[in-house]
Amino acid sequence: MESANQDINLNSPNKGLGVDSLTDVPVGGAASNASNAASTVPLGLTEEEAEELRTELSKVEEEIHTLRQVLSAKEKHSYELKRKLGLSPLNEFKQNITKGWQDVQTSNAYVKATEKLGEWNEKVAGSDLYLSASATLEDISRSEAYKKTQETLTQAGQKTSAALSTMGTAISKKLGDMRNSPTFKSFEDKVGNIKHKVVGGRGDGEGVQSPAETKSVQDNAPF
Q: pLDDT per residue over 136-162, tens digit each?
């Protein structure tokens, strides 16, 4: 019978399995495979060395975890200190830029680049092309054409200044002649007479009467 082939022991790990199926179950099961994988020794290492390395790896991982916790606590403390000091992210950014630029200026690459540029400048200044160009400019400044051009410009400037001065003197003289002319004096006398009539009458108490005052005088007349 089929039931007779089944394991009747309820405490057996193979209960419910047929006799034929017992041959398919590996000896030791998954635990045995895990133990074999854990006990696998890498090539070139003994079992003692592998165990020592595993122990050291475990300690290093624990230290990394502890250091991460310490770093997190330090960052929080640093943030609180900056907040109390009023250090904004913008000020911190400026300080980082300034410090970074100072580090760049003191770096070996920057110093070497500066020295290299100085050497190139000296080579350019001492090259035949540069010296030839400088000599050409010096020759031009000493040439007769350059001197004549400079003298012409200087004379033109002097003539322009003299012409402006002469024109100003002529205008002043013309205005003086106009003031001394009979026409201008006659016009000035007329203006003075008009001013005397308007202002002088008021000074003598004989101001110009308003229409209202004139009407009041006429109403009080005896005739």
A: 887 787 788 888 888 889 988 888 988
DSSP-based three-state secondary structure for 101: helix
Cα separation of the two ends of the chain: 171
Which residue type is seen at 23? Answer: T
Name the residue with tokens 């082939």.
5
Residues 9, 11, 15, 16: is their CA dihedral positive or negative? positive
User: What is the per-residue pLDDT across 162-190, written as a single tens digit (0 to 9) for each?
Assistant: 889 888 888 888 888 887 888 877 887 88
The CA distance from 41 to 51, in Å, is: 9
Alpha-carbon gap, residue 62 to 69, rounded angstroms: 11
CA dihedral over 86, 91, 95, 100, signed as positive or negative: positive
